[in-house]
Write a structure and sequence with these properties.
This protein has about 130 residues and is α+β, with helices and mostly antiparallel strands. Helix content is about 35%, strand content about 40%. The protein is globular, with a radius of gyration of 14 Å.
Length: about 130
């Protein structure tokens, strides 16, 4: 499946491998900010920051058809359990051109937003998405 490389990079927390599967102009829609993140380095950095705050992250399901894949996951942040999906869309070369993350419940989204905000405020972290 096209999504296998993305899944392996996320599960191993390998930022270089993650960057390699992202299209140069990838667009990422986060569940915690309004505007999208854009560009390979920025998106990989934001995903790395998220990985740094998610506890017990694991993919539970993987579905793929055509140029679209859905990876379902569970994790926790700040003691709040959450469930979510990564929705991936691929370009003709097989790179991820669009990524959107959807998470429930609201308490988990709030905890994640706060943890990522603190992480991105640290020196050397990628810039925030436009509001």
């Amino acid at each position: 499946m096209r999504s296998d490389a993305f899944r392996a990079a996320v599960e191993s927390r390998d930022v270089s491998a993650l960057e390699a599967v992202l299209a140069p102009d990838v667009s990422f829609r986060s569940p915690v900010v309004f505007g999208p993140y854009a560009g390979r380095a920025t998106v990989a950095g934001v995903l790395a920051a998220a990985a740094g705050v998610l506890e017990g992250f694991r993919y539970t399901d993987q579905l793929e058809t055509g140029a679209t894949a859905v990876l379902a996951f569970t994790a926790a942040v700040g003691g709040r359990e959450l469930e979510g999906i990564d929705l991936l869309r691929f370009d003709t070369a097989g790179s991820v051109r669009e990524l959107a993350v959807y998470i429930r419940p609201l308490s988990g989204v709030r905890a994640l937003a706060e943890a990522i905000r603190r992480r991105l405020d640290e020196p050397g972290e990628p810039p925030r998405a436009p509001a």
